[in-house]
Design brief:
With 308 residues, the chain is α+β, with helices and mostly antiparallel strands. The chain is built from ten helices and twelve strands. It folds into three domains: 81 residues, Rossmann fold, CATH 3.40.50.20; 138 residues, D-amino Acid Aminotransferase, Chain A, domain 1; 63 residues, ATP-grasp fold, A domain (Dna Ligase, domain 1, 2-Layer Sandwich). A five-stranded antiparallel sheet has the order 10-9-8-11-12. The protein has a four-stranded antiparallel sheet with strand order 4-7-5-6, with helices on one face. The protein has a three-stranded parallel sheet with strand order 2-1-3, sandwiched between helices.
């Protein structure tokens, strides 16, 4: 849809673990859209957001926010009630994608490959025994409802499990313990249902942590296009598009897939509001596919709509 003559609000900030990244994403999107001639106002997300949106006359919302309350369907539900079209996925798709436990159930029902896991309630973090895990160490411990690798630990031995569970329990939702799969991390940007390309992330540390993503990018290498055989690339694209579709996603998403040493593929997650900072992966993939950042921002805005 053409929003050229409407007042665009870029929502950014918010009070959660991804606040700083959201500020940068929102600022980048606002700058790009202003550069294309849109009337743009940056709207910090606070408790008085509905009043702010009404007072400023926002007619369409570009979501530059990340994490809890913003990627999980809460913000999308508010905008549906206010009848303000917004970018990205709707309430249900956002909620499913943000909850890694729910997303894996959807993927399994669609016969999409995922790693084995055990789900632990936060209240059991202190009493959970490593012997209850039906697969061998090493494992990955993560909160089920956070993004940007917040609260994620790689645990090599049973002795390290308790501390990892304590860390994950500080965040929202259940705790996921997954069998650790050693392989290459592939990221696929999907825009309006079509995969744009495959990028390989080669972190300069043990895994692609929050620090590696946003604080030490110089040690991380980004390979685009990913150096894989054409049939492998085609399968990665197909798997990413199917994960996007199975969850009911809209607009742009970033799909993470591990490619193991035997050529097996394992879906990690689908990010429905991927970062748009200078270090973020979707802009890198889009650029490799011939889309400037301004083009990408305009495509994202064009997909804004009500979905309920």
């Amino acid at each position: 849809m053409n929003y050229r003559n409407q007042h665009v609000g870029v929502l950014l900030g918010g009070h959660n673990a991804e606040h700083e990244v959201s500020l940068r994403t929102g600022a980048a999107l606002a700058k790009a859209l202003r550069g294309r001639g849109y009337r743009v106002t940056e709207v910090p997300v606070e408790a008085d957001l509905p009043e702010t949106l009404r007072r400023q006359g926002i007619e369409v919302a570009v979501l530059g926010v990340h994490g809890r309350f913003f990627e999980d369907g809460c913000l999308q539900g508010l905008l549906e009630i206010m009848r303000i079209p917004y970018t990205g996925s709707g309430v249900l798709a956002s909620a499913l994608a943000m909850d890694k436990v729910a997303a894996k159930k959807v993927f399994r029902e669609g016969h999409l490959p995922v790693a084995e896991e055990v789900v632990v309630e936060p209240a059991r973090a202190e009493s959970f025994e490593p012997s209850s895990i039906p697969f061998p160490f090493p494992v990955v411990v993560k909160p089920a409802r956070e993004g940007s690798s917040v609260g994620v630990s790689m645990v090599a031995e049973p002795a390290g499990l308790r501390e990892a569970l304590r860390l994950a329990a500080r965040y929202a939702g259940d705790i996921l313990i997954e069998r650790r799969i050693f392989g290459r991390e592939m990221n696929i940007a999907v825009l309006d249902g079509e995969p744009l390309g495959v990028l390989e992330v080669v972190p300069g540390e043990d895994f692609y942590s929050y620090q590696a993503k946003y604080q030490s990018q110089g040690r991380t290498r980004y390979l685009f296009p990913a150096p894989v055989e054409k049939p492998v690339e085609a399968r990665l694209r197909e798997l990413a598009a199917e994960a996007h579709r199975r969850l009911g996603c809209s607009g742009v998403s970033r799909v993470e897939i591990l490619l193991d040493r035997q050529g097996g593929m394992f879906l990690l997650e689908v990010n429905t509001l991927p970062g748009m900072t200078e270090a973020s992966l979707v802009p890198k993939i889009a650029a490799g596919a011939g889309l400037s950042f301004e083009d990408l921002a305009e495509r994202i805005l064009a997909g804004a709509r009500l979905q309920a």
